[in-house]
Amino acid sequence: MGKLTMGVFPGLVGSLSLDFSVKLAEAAVKKGHTVDYWVSSNATMLSKKGQRSFKDYSTLYKTLEELFKTGNFKACACEACAEARGFHKEDLMEGWIRKSMDWYLASSFDADRVLMIGGE
Amino acid sequence: MKLGVFMSDYRTGADVVDRLSADKLGIIFVGNGIYRAAVKEGGSNDPILQKSATFYVLTEDLESRGLTAANLAANVKAVTYSDVVDLIFNDYEKIIWI
To answer: What pLDDT was estimated at residue B26?
Structure first.
């Protein structure tokens, strides 16, 4: 089994690339791999607690909750990006951590595969 | 090097692919990139499908846009998220997103 590190840089919640990245993480973990998952800029909104689900609208919150339960999924949000958007440590969804981009770089060094998803 | 390329856009990115060099090239169409694999313009397939590469399309993204495997060009294989994970770990050493 391998380790996949993903960095998701842009993207609002509901964006195509964010949706793709979480579903890919889910598929990788289901196959026994581990996933390190980094988000920055607007994608940090994915780490905010208390997100609501709406009918016929893609939501990733429950998928993330299930991923965290496996123990094979780590997720980290850019701390500065979150603070700049006005949400703080106490607003963080359980399971997430917040760090600088060093976390993503360190994870990349010992990953078997790295996928950086850029702008859309 | 065995290189896997995710293409997520219909209109941009082909120029980047043109500049890539790999011993083995795989192109995985996702998001709106799936239209490259399933839509003909002026009766012709997308020019990118003429490249020397192996082509895949993410079934979920294909079907969510009202298309099926029957719409695909002959040299494109439909794959699931689970298949994509296997491609990443087993078939390609490096993966990039365009």
So the answer is: 97
